């Protein structure tokens, strides 16, 4: 009987502890967010994408490429940001020498804590995944244009607000991202990565000696209809806490249908070199499915303005802007 009483008393203590733990968990105050943030306008981001496409394919060493660079610099300057051109020469997979330009625009350059937001602004000189006009360059409305469009709208919004975030922001537009070997190339060199020429250059020779950022976000193909964004492999490997934070913010904002809580494989993109060579934890918001890979438009002529969706731009822009204000 005594042993049964002891067992009964122990069970009562366990139940009491469980109730106490449950009560403490319930009473834990919710996480607080900075909610007074400016409004991101998808129509504005869409117009910036359209303007890039209107120049024509932004293939390096062509007039549309040079004209777009001047326009991008002018837009950032019109927002009152400090702008630099990082000009350099790089060799392509097929032996061409290209004159490339990374464009860096800084908001609140005096702030010591900095966040890096990046995209690439060049477009592909061939449609090697298409079934026709394979050797013609693509519009790159989504692959290149959408990330730039979101960044320009972020810069515009920040330049106008009376309540800026507590951090400085460096917007970097990388050049020469999209000219790696085509699907049918035989000129492969396993010791050289021909993609992401601009980020490879910047990550080893940044625009400012000793430059560092708290973390970075890369925007690549962020405007397509029906886009879904998974947790990309290199992002999780190098900056899991940033990935989890941004995805949780997206869900908090009601964008869980776009930001999926599932990991995909690692993708060689500009963020890889920022992580590996510049030692800045950077994630990639990119449309890439673990089941189907890139979208049907990828490296085809279907990557045009018909693909761009204002809702997708709104979701990504709001999420990134919200993230900046939580720091």
From TrEMBL:
The keyword Lipid metabolism does not apply. The lineage of its organism: Bacteria, Pseudomonadati, Bacteroidota, Cytophagia, Cytophagales. This is Aminopeptidase Y (Arg, Lys, Leu preference). Keywords: Acyltransferase, Aminopeptidase, Hydrolase, Protease, Transferase. Residues 102-321 form the Peptidase M28 domain. One of its GO terms (molecular function) is zinc ion binding. Its EC number is 3.4.11.15. The keyword Acyltransferase applies. InterPro entries: Peptidase_M28, QC/QCL.
């Amino acid at each position: 009987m005594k042993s049964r009483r002891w067992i009964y008393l122990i069970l009562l203590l366990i139940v009491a502890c469980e109730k106490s733990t449950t009560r403490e968990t319930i009473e834990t105050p919710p996480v607080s967010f900075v909610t007074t943030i400016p409004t991101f306008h998808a129509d504005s981001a869409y117009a910036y994408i359209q303007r890039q496409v209107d120049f024509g394919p932004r293939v390096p060493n062509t007039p549309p490429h040079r004209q777009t660079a001047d326009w991008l610099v002018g837009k950032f300057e019109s927002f009152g940001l400090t702008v630099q051109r990082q000009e350099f020469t790089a060799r392509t997979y097929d032996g061409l020498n290209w004159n490339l330009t990374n464009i860096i625009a800084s908001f609140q350059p005096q702030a010591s804590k900095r966040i890096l937001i990046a995209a690439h602004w060049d477009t592909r000189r061939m449609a090697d995944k298409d079934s026709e006009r394979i050797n013609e360059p693509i519009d790159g409305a989504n692959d290149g244009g959408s990330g730039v469009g979101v960044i320009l709208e972020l810069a515009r919004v920040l330049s106008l607000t009376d309540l800026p975030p507590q951090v400085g922001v460096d917007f970097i537009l990388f050049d020469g991202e999209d000219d790696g070997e085509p699907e049918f190339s035989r000129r492969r060199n396993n010791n050289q990565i021909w993609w992401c020429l601009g980020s490879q250059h910047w990550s080893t020779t940044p625009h400012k000696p000793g430059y560092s950022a708290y973390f970075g976000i890369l925007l690549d193909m962020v405007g397509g209809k029906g886009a879904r964004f998974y947790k990309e492999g290199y992002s999780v490997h190098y900056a899991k806490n940033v990935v989890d934070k941004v995805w949780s913010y997206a869900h908090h904002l009601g964008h869980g249908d776009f930001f999926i809580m599932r990991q995909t494989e690692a993708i060689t993109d500009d963020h890889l070199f920022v992580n590996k060579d510049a030692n800045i934890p950077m994630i990639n918001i990119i449309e890439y499915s673990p089941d189907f890979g890139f979208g049907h438009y990828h490296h085809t002529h279907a990557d045009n303005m018909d693909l761009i969706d204002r809702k997708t731009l709104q979701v990504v822009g709001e999420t990134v802007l919200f993230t900046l204000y939580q720091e």
